[in-house]
Amino acid sequence: MTDGPEYGFDTLQIHAGARPDPATGARQTPIYQTTAYVFRDAEHAAALFNLQEVGYIYSRLTNPTVAALQERMATLEGGVGAVCCSSGHAAQIMALFPLMGPGKNIVASTRLYGGTVTQFSQTIKRFGWSCTFVDFDDLDAVKAAIDDDTRAVFCESIANPGGYITDLDAIAGVADEAGIPLIVDNTSASPYLCRPIEHGATLVVHSMTKYLTGNGTVTGGVVIDSGKFDWSASDKFPSLSAAEPAYHGLKFHETFGPLAFTFHGIAIGLRDLGMTLNPQAAHYTLMGIETLSLRMQKHVENAEKVASWLETHDAVEAVTYAGLKSSPYNKRVSKICPKGAGGLFTIALKGGYESCVKFVDNLEIFSHVANLGDTRSLVIHSASTTHRQLTVEQQVAAGAAPNVVRISIGTEEADDLIADLDRALNAAR
Ligand SMILES: *Cc1c(COP(=O)(O)O)cnc(C)c1O
């Protein structure tokens, strides 16, 4: 099919990027489990290596199964191109890599996945990069944190774990004014609930490990490019605007236009960093995405029921679900994610840390795991696990205080989930 804008999301999530296999007619996208591809002749090989012709060389760079997924993700997010990577964390590095250099920094929201806080506050320092964390509800603080060396602004659409919703349009305005790209981690929302590019994002990153695959079988990530950023408007992004010595002085932006970031991601990023998604993982993810909208609707419907019920339970101090009228972020749902606030939120227990530990140990349907976005309902006590590396101050800022449990609502029967939670809450008193 042609992936025209006339097709709706439910159609594109099944068909975008996937064509019957030209060799066999296979209707499902085959797993092209191959490392290399035969060149037609020496001239063809030279053209591929010079980026004069697009084609398959070696699966660290490109693979047909992975390419189908890239096209599907670019389509669903409304971007021009995408680069799949081995994990969500790999996608974050791949998004930053063409923009950054030693001495450069990013400005990021305090409300992020715990692993991202660690990656940005610790690990990227080894590359000479740094990150300033600020409260993204305070636009003046975001503006003040941006300096001449800032190369990107980074936030999550619906932030893990708190269910906090970022005012993407406002943040995109600040990034625009500073002439730098906005990168949005859209993992917790998925493109079904939120399309950050429509709110001004330049790049969108995902952990495909979560809702996109949707069943806890894959580790994967992706960077999607809106194709809208002018990399040559300043001298801030020489990897994209200036001559690249490894390709005989080729200038990515001048040569590939809106596809500059995507081509750089494959021809330099995957080639040299090697954080490649394998074809089997791409296949599982393609299968998962076929039912994304159906699952997200059920995640939202269940989360609304369960969060409303939890709010009335006397062992529960607070519920952060933005879909609740009581949430300070409820107003942003209609603007940022009008189909619902997702399936992820936290609860604070009156009994504190001890109660949280007993609560997670007494659940039956819910599994205590470091994952989210599965068809199965999951919980985690963030303070003792994913956010353990952070100080209590950082934990509180990230919405993962010691008395807080993160809940990822699955697609089971809502009444069964409520009964399970009730049993465990009563046992935890
Ligand atoms: C899980 C997660 C990541 C990291 O993804 P991996 O696939 O585990 O590397 C990044 N951001 C968010 C919001 C996540 O939930």
Automatic annotation (TrEMBL):
<keyword id="KW-0663">Pyridoxal phosphate</keyword>
<dbReference type="Pfam" id="PF01053">
    <property type="entry name" value="Cys_Met_Meta_PP"/>
</dbReference>
<dbReference type="InterPro" id="IPR006235">
    <property type="entry name" value="OAc-hSer/O-AcSer_sulfhydrylase"/>
</dbReference>
<protein>
    <submittedName>
        <fullName>O-acetylhomoserine aminocarboxypropyltransferase/cysteine synthase</fullName>
    </submittedName>
</protein>
<dbReference type="InterPro" id="IPR015421">
    <property type="entry name" value="PyrdxlP-dep_Trfase_major"/>
</dbReference>
<dbReference type="InterPro" id="IPR015422">
    <property type="entry name" value="PyrdxlP-dep_Trfase_small"/>
</dbReference>
<comment type="similarity">
    <text>Belongs to the trans-sulfuration enzymes family.</text>
</comment>
<keyword id="KW-0808">Transferase</keyword>
<dbReference type="InterPro" id="IPR015424">
    <property type="entry name" value="PyrdxlP-dep_Trfase"/>
</dbReference>
<dbReference type="InterPro" id="IPR000277">
    <property type="entry name" value="Cys/Met-Metab_PyrdxlP-dep_enz"/>
</dbReference>
